Amino acid sequence: MIISVASGKGGTGKTTVATNLAVSLGPGVQLLDCDVEEPNAHLFIQPVMEEVKTINTPVPQIDMQKCTLCGKCGEICQFKAIVVLGKTVMPFHELCHSCGGCMLVCPAGAVTEVGRELGVIERGHRDGLEFVHGRLRVGEAMSPPLIRKVREYTRRGSLTIIDAPPGTSCPVIASMKGADFVLLVTEPTPFGLHDLKLATGAVRMLGIPCGLVINRSDVGDDRVKAYARAQDIPVFMEIPFDRRIAEIYSRGHMIVEAMPERKAQFVNLYRQIEKIVS
Amino acid sequence: MKELVIISGKGGTGKTSLLAGFAAVAKDKVLCDADVDAADLHLVMNPQIRERHDFQSGHTASIDQDKCTRCGLCRDVCRWDSIDEDFVVDPIACEGCGVCCYLCPEKAIDFPLNTCGEWFLSNTRFGPMAHASLGIAEENSGKLVTLIRQQGRKLAEENHMDLLLTDGPPGIGCPVIASIGGATALLIVAEPTVSGKHDMTRVAELAAFFKVPAMLCVNKFDLNPEQAGAMEDFAAARGIRVMGRIPYDPVFTKAMVQGLTVVEYDAGSPGAMGVKKIWEAVARGLEI
Fold first, then answer.
1. DSSP B135
2. B218 — contact with chain A (CB < 8 Å)?
3. CA A93 to chain centre
4. Do A95 and A11 reside in the same domain of the chain?
């Protein structure tokens, strides 16, 4: 089963829920941090890293000895990533989406592919929990291809928890698509509600069942709960604002470590998801 | 014209609340919401929309089943696995590269332009505002960010204003890169947590990569004053100017619930006082 933890709005507690859920469920669980722009789960899990892999995406390289300046490569490219300028061909690697079109249409075989670094993937473990995350290279614009590479580590047959990035555009879709369940984490504020509506729209578009965790549940107002009721989204867990939790989090500790009595709540959260998915 | 862009790396550190507070105290400015993916500034600014435009960008393939001979070439060349065995395109998976459409021997693949959002020019009680809304699951957020910043600039010129206050998106990817290019300065809003420090470091590296001057403000500093101090030292050592600190103050949430800025809601609160002090420091930094 794949559970993707998402939110719409940033800073609502996705990573807190994803890491505490993963650790509470014990060995055999996989945690994939797909917030490759700002991965944070490792700060709490503190895994022993075993493997670091640089991930590249293919981009074109032109052999000017073979190029006939026919212009077909520039014609097929939708992203203005390859341009014929006078007597030369200029590839703009940072604009390239790696579709391979230029290489396919080149009649002279002048286009080959080299790699543009997207970032790295690190894999490790902690007490039988497998941990994988991606780290987008600073300056790289495209996170979805790296997210898809992180998701290739999904082990069929085990429980995989995905920490998704904030928002509702392509990186979030790349982190939710194909999941069996999306756990939405929000806060009961106007910003939280507004972004929850967007996130719910994305989840519904993908046709995935979802449920809600309301973090800092005693701040703000009741509109998130009213929305959840109206939309028939089950509320699995409410976490009231607790300065102790905020301070535990600020130091990089996990709730279930500092307050072991909370573990049962996360196990129970999983049981409720399990019931819906099966 | 000067443009201040507020970014954070990590989401939920208080970018929008801080920008809304600045809007209440800064003079003669245009507001711009560049977090087009999950835009929230309008919830506090309550903009009166004057102009509404479609945002069109990118294409999605669509196969005409009557013309398709099921030769399979499109499926072979698609690197996104977006065409299924029945030759139906999954619009979410389609990258819009057009390779299938270009190569289809039957010319059976259509490639229409997508309408992936809307953008608006509005009036608010604090001045003109440019904002947008990207459709759910849509791509090209970077292009919409670029467009909305251009529109903000135009609004400022038309209104003879010299300041643009831009609310940026979280992260360090495409929409953030589109938000910071050509800005006068960035204000990084960070929270004093291990995640906050980690994400601030990455966004500071991004600012340095694109050579945009950066400033730092630690929000909710009293949740972990030691961490806040470490972050300020880190910033200072990298040439990032430290603008000051804001305490954790529930007034931010209370103001948001009322659709108000923290300065309007309770000007004497520690949160509002913090916002005003940071703005004074930022204004000096921008030389305005």
1. P
2. no
3. 24
4. no
